[in-house]
Write a structure and sequence with these properties.
The chain is an alpha+beta fold and 573 residues long. The protein contains 20 helices and 13 strands. Strands 3-4-7-6-5-8-9 form a 7-stranded mixed β-sheet, sandwiched between helices. It has a 4-stranded antiparallel β-sheet with strand order 10-11-12-13. Strands 1-2 form a two-stranded antiparallel ribbon. Helix 3 packs across helix 4. The radius of gyration is 35 Å and the shape is extended. InterPro entries: MULE_transposase_dom, Transposase_MuDR, Znf_PMZ, Znf_SWIM. It holds the Pfam family DBD_Tnp_Mut.
């Protein structure tokens, strides 16, 4: 009945039929109606809402069509492009101008296009400023629906106004889930691209299937020692206190102020640094680098690398408690990549999309593992089978009890010592990961032992089910939130930096690939055209840096050219 057209002269068999038709029409169109007259012979019905009627039209024009109309404003335009912005939030201003010109044959300015886009995004995601006012209401709703969670809002008084400073969330389900995981946590920070800026701090663990498990997240004003300390204090309290967290391993990218804050709260805690970031920091000073001659090539780069203790970045010095041998902080980087599109949205929309993602992830993992038939998590089982395939290259030799020497089939100098009773191998892979290596599996096959029984319990299916047995409960929309008695929170005062606002992070040197059609020289050793030595090119050749020589010209070439010019001068009459 939505598209039904009423026509004069339509016949109905009974009065009840027309009543049913009117009710169906009103219900399908969502309109309240009023029976002005309703007796045995007549019926008059009108809409309850008052309407305006067009009485006179004079549509004859003698003027020509204009391209720029003053009646068009950004508010009207935002309603017309709202659907397009919803489908494509990154739509550019030039695309909006072209779309309006093609559809309406009118022109709009660049500023109007951007204003209309911002208004449309406010209608979709909400207002940046207005959402700060409801942070107390949102925190109250979050705690009411997820009891046992930790939600902290920190504000400050600036000129009599309550101004936002920080917001911390650690859901009860995330706390309980981490108790079944390995004691390793990745810490990272990412900048927010919204109207008022800020930083998003995250703490992420690893579940039994070697995938990320977000624990807590926090919005702060800036990434420094004070903000990291506030975040870590709350995180440590949620995970059991300093005594329990002192046995954890924290992995980071050496962010600003993080190391100092962590040393103050947990002085002797084990820390790991992401080797990719160590490489990028070192290669900034060293260039492509030559590991054998780092000190000879660049003293500053050598000093930068040597001051970092190997226990932070070398597997040979890692402790065995975390049962994780990762060298990179991919667990937090993966979580940040999921939140990439949300970091430009208003604060409550940002926090809600994070919570919604976690709720769906917990439910999906809980459902997927229920249909898995094995006793070991899928990714761990795949890694175990790859190690089993490598056992064909290793030959075990019995020493006594369950102590073996394992040597490579084709390289007798490649040997390892395996002790089954101690669950150890001198390659340290078994101790670091809790998964038997190919050397130990070769011994187990020799002893006719099932290697799966030696996999650490962190990787069992039962442990994974225990991890995601908790539920992140849904919450109501903003219209259903209780109004708290706290004052409205104002957005922080964003410091305006000189120049055009930066929307993208600064890429590392290895990420800048200029031409996709040509193969890069990454990984190839440089060779100088002057001295024929590896590790540098002619620009940085030591033989070409003597005084009085051109860059790229050797001292021998310069001397030869000088002698030739003197001979030519003497031969002149």
């Amino acid at each position: 009945m939505v598209d039904y057209k009423w026509e004069v002269g339509t016949y109905f068999a009974e009065k009840q039929d027309i009543l049913e038709a009117i009710k169906s029409y009103a219900l399908d169109n969502g309109r309240n109606i009023h029976f002005v007259k309703n007796d045995k012979q007549r019926m008059r019905v009108k809409c309850v809402v008052k309407t305006w009627q067009l009485r006179t039209i004079l549509d004859s024009h003698t003027c020509s069509r204009e391209f720029n109309l003053k009646l068009i404003d950004s508010k009207w335009l935002s309603k017309k492009i709202e659907k397009s912005i919803r489908d494509n939030p990154t739509m550019k201003g030039v695309d909006i101008r072209e779309k309006v010109q093609r559809k309406y044959n009118v022109g709009i300015s660049r500023c109007m296009a951007y204003r209309a886009k911002n208004l449309a995004r406010e209608q979709i995601d909400g207002s940046f400023k207005e959402q700060y006012k409801r942070l107390y209401d949102y925190a109250h709703e979050l705690l009411a629906k997820n009891p046992g969670s930790t939600v902290k809002l920190k504000v400050e008084d600036v000129g009599g106004e309550v101004v936002f400073k920080r917001f911390y969330v650690c859901l009860k389900a995330c706390k309980d889930s981490f108790k079944s995981c390995r004691p390793i946590i990745g810490l990272d920070g990412a900048f927010l691209k919204g109207k008022y800026g800020g930083e998003l701090l995250t703490a992420v663990g690893r579940d039994g299937n070697d995938q990320m498990l977000p624990i807590a997240y926090c919005v702060v004003e800036v990434e420094n020692k004070e903000s990291w300390r506030w975040f870590l204090e709350l995180l440590i309290d949620d995970l059991g206190g300093p005594e329990i967290c002192a046995s954890f391993t924290f992995m980071s990218d050496q962010q600003k102020g993080l190391l100092q804050a962590l040393d103050d709260l947990l002085p002797r805690v084990d820390q790991r640094f992401c080797v990719r970031h160590i490489y990028s920091h070192t290669s900034t000073n060293l260039g492509d680098g030559n590991e054998k001659n780092i000190r000879a090539l660049n003293e500053d780069a050598y000093k930068h690398l040597i001051v970092i203790p190997p226990r932070h970045w070398s597997r040979s010095r890692f402790i065995e408690i975390p049962k994780c041998d990762t060298l990179v902080n991919n667990m937090t980087e993966g979580f940040n990549s999921v939140l990439l599109s949300t970091r430009s949205k208003p604060i409550i929309t940002l926090l809600e999309e994070i919570r919604l993602y976690l709720m769906q992830r917990w439910a999906k993992n809980r459902s997927s593992i229920a249909s898995f038939t094995g006793s070991i998590c899928p990714k761990i089982l795949s890694r175990f089978r790859k190690e089993s395939q490598l056992t064909k290259n290793w030959i075990p030799s019995w020493s006594g009890n369950k102590l073996f020497e394992v040597r490579h089939m084709y390289n007798n100098g490649d040997k390892y010592v395996v002790n089954i009773d101690d669950s150890s191998c001198t390659c340290r892979t078994w101790q670091l990961t809790g998964i038997p290596c190919s050397h130990s599996l070769a011994v187990m096959k020799f002893l006719n032992i099932d290697g799966e029984t030696f996999i650490d319990s962190y990787y069992f299916k039962s442990k994974y089910e225990e991890t995601y047995s908790t539920i992140i409960y849904p919450i109501n929309g903003a219209k259903m939130w209780n109004i708290t008695p706290y004052p409205d929170v104002y957005p922080p005062h964003k410091r305006v930096l000189p120049g055009r606002p930066k929307r993208k992070r600064r890429l590392e040197q290895w990420e800048m690939r200029k031409d996709e059609s040509r193969m890069t020289k990454s990984g190839l050793r440089k060779r100088c055209r002057i001295c024929r030595q590896h590790g540098h090119n002619r620009t940085h050749c030591p033989s070409a840096t003597q005084p009085g020589t051109e860059p790229g010209t050797s001292a021998t070439q310069a001397t030869t050219s000088t002698q030739q010019s003197e001979i030519a001068h003497e031969s002149q009459p």
